[in-house]
Amino acid sequence: MKYLTTALTLLVCHVMVYSQSFYAHRFEDQNYISFGLGTAGYYGDLQHQLIIPFPAASLELSHKLGPQVKIREGLSYFLLRAKDSNQKQQDLKDRNLSFKSANIELSLTFELLFLPIYSYRGRPKVNPFIFGGIGGVTVNPRTTLNGKSHNLRKYKTEGKRYSGLALAIPIGLGIEFAIARYVTLISEFGYRFTTTDYLDDVSTVYTDLSPGDGIRYRLADRTPEMGIAPKKAGMIRGNPKVNDGYAIFSFKLQYNLAQIF
């Protein structure tokens, strides 16, 4: 009973706060949908600089919790790629590894606006914000050998099985631009920390394989393609101390749901 009383009290207080505004009764102003296009890139063992040249798209629902706070549920699709031939150090070029992947991210984030919004019509023309939250991302690196694409996770190139899903922690910042009565343009940049070091299929050391292992042997150690002797088991292949991450930069169009339906 105590918890029910507390919950009812909080609900009443919430409604009373909204009643202070002329537009407080317009709860339809609190829900939005947005569509975004942008670019993505990754940071990890095959790329030590954050470069974001690959396409990304997103669909997002957001709900206003207060004048400066929104909660967002997002679905993103993006491509990631990298290869050792673009590295600066010669030993990394000689490693000769590469990957590409098509990834899906589901996220739940909170957005903190710098300026309060009491009604969608009367919102600021320009409003910066920061955001952070939690999500999940697919892990499915692939590479090409003799013109054919191969699923690297399937071949366990480092002798380790890893999950096709990883936790992602998105953080970032952006700016909202009110461009029409019920339309907002959003420019946003966000980086994702992850719980995996296998977005690129590279993390630890070379495993004990022989030419008899066929494609797996060739995918695990690609230095022979550079005219270099094969690596021995236990030699360094990647850096397990730092997990992989990725970033997405996007432009979104946000619409008031009440004006669509």
Task: Characterize the structure shown.
By secondary structure, this protein is mainly beta. The protein has a single domain, classed as Porin (Beta Barrel). The chain has 5 helices and 10 strands, in the order αβββαββββαββαβα. It has helices spanning 2-18, 90-95, 152-155, 215-220, 257-260, and strands at residues 31-43, 54-66, 69-83, 98-113, 126-138, 142-145, 148-151, 165-180, 183-194, 245-256. A hairpin with a 2-residue loop joins strand 2 and strand 3 (69-83).
CA-CA gap between termini: 39 Å
What is the share of helical residues?
A: 10-25%
Lateral strand order in the biggest sheet: 1-2-3-4-5-8-9-10
How many helices? The count is: 5
Q: What integer is the average pLDDT?
A: 89
Residue fraction in strands: over 45%
The CATH class assignment is Mainly Beta
What is the CATH architecture annotation? Beta Barrel
Q: Structural class, from helix and strand content?
A: mainly beta
Q: Could you please say which CATH topology applies here?
A: Porin
Number of domains: 1
Low-confidence stretches: 1-25
**Most strands sheet:** 8 strands, antiparallel, barrel
Radius of gyration: 24 Å
Shape descriptor reads: elongated
**Number of beta-strand segments:** 10
Order of helices and strands: HEEEHEEEEHEEHEH
